[in-house]
Structure formats: structure tokens, C-alpha cells
Amino acid sequence: MFRFIHYIVHKTKLLDTIRITFPERGHSYLECDKNLGLVNLNTHMEIPKDWFELLRRSRVRPSPFEVVEVEQEIIKTWDTFLKNEKYRKKCPFPIQKIKQIESVREHPGFVNCKTSYRGTSTQHSITITPKSNKSLTAKNGLEEGEFELPLPAYKDLSSEFALELWLSRNPKKQSEVKKFQNFLLFLKSPWV
């Protein structure tokens, strides 16, 4: 559930904050809890149709429950959907003691949890972060110990040679070539 509320706030950006408060067991007097108390859960059921019939027969007055028979295609599994996102596989906090969980847009990558209703919240990281710089250098195609020089470091070289050297190190940054050429023209101008 912590992945789902984080996804709604930070990826879809539908809401700024989601806060879920879990009530104490046995202390809820909501209509849904009263209705569930009418269902005889000791009844033997084998197939989904048995559940539908049990729910229809559970209440007569004021009216029987209206049951919408859901097909398997409608049911989505969030684990499958969220597996491509960069979330931790295991929950980073003990969920049994949680009284409140919150995801806030100002804190990406974290959820806030409370273990008491009046206590302070603790922040837990739920996204996976890179473990070392080796993965970053492998992505850039650099060898270990090499680093990428910023564009202005090439200003003292001749423009053609600097451009070829910079492009050989940064083949995916073709859009910055124009910026580099304008930078070199600026350096050759009489105002510098």
C-alpha cells in the first residue's frame, strides 16, 4: 500500500497528500463494519458465485445487498504494475504498529509513518537509490578513474579540435554543440 500511495502522489501527481489513518481494532462504528457483521463467514464456499449468493442473502431489511459480480479482467495487481518503478521490495518499516501513513509531494522518495495517534512521524525511504558511483560511470561509458569535463574546460583549444574531442566523450549531447559553438564565438569577440 505504501508504494501505491507514493505512486499516486509523486508519479501521477493526482493529489498533493494522501494520509491514511488506521482505527483501533474493534472501535469502529461505521456503516460498512455493521454491514460486514451481518455476513456469516463460517459458511462453506468454494467458488466466487458462492460469495455473491452469501452476500445477497446476508441482509433482507432495509434491502438486500446489491452485489456487483466482478470479473478477473477488472482486478489489477499493483505489485505487477509497480514492478517497473524503483521501489524497495520489502516494506522498510514494521506495518503492524503503524497508526498513520502519509505521502506528501514535498518529500519525494519518502513516506511518513506514525506508531501512535498523537506521536511524531518518522520518515522512511521507499525508493531505491544508486549504491555507488561505479554504476554512474558505467552509464556514461567512462573508465574507472575518468570523469567528464564540463564544456567550458575546452575553451583554450582550437574550436574544431575541441568540438571533436568533446563530441567523442559526449556523443548523446548533440544539442549542446550549438551552445558550445556560440560560447567559442563569444570568446573570440573583441569585448572579451
General description of the model:
- The protein has 192 residues and is an alpha+beta fold.
- The protein has 2 domains: 124 residues, no CATH class; 56 residues, no CATH class.
- Helix content is 33%, strand content 10%.
- It has a 4-stranded antiparallel β-sheet with strand order 1-2-3-4, with helices on one face.
- Strand 2 and strand 3 form a beta hairpin.
- The radius of gyration is 29 Å and the shape is elongated.
- The mean pLDDT is 77.
Give a quick rundown of the structure:
With 192 residues, the protein is of the alpha+beta class. It has helices at residues 2-11, 31-36, 48-58, 78-82, 133-140, 159-169, 177-188; strands at 17-21, 100-104, 110-114, 122-125.
Draw up the topology in text.
Layout (H helix, E strand, L loop, with lengths): L1 H10 L5 E5 L9 H6 L11 H11 L19 H5 L17 E5 L5 E5 L7 E4 L7 H8 L18 H11 L7 H12 L4
Antiparallel strand pairs: 1-2, 2-3, 3-4
The biggest beta sheet is recorded as: 4 strands, antiparallel
Helix content: 25-40%
Compute the average pLDDT: 77
Quote the beta fraction: 5-15%
Rounded radius of gyration (Å): 29 Å
Instruction: Give the number of domains.
Output: 2
The ordered string of helix (H) and strand (E) elements is HEHHHEEEHHH
Shape: elongated
Index terms:
192 residues, alpha+beta, 2 domains, four-stranded antiparallel β-sheet, 7 helices, 4 strands, 10% strand, elongated
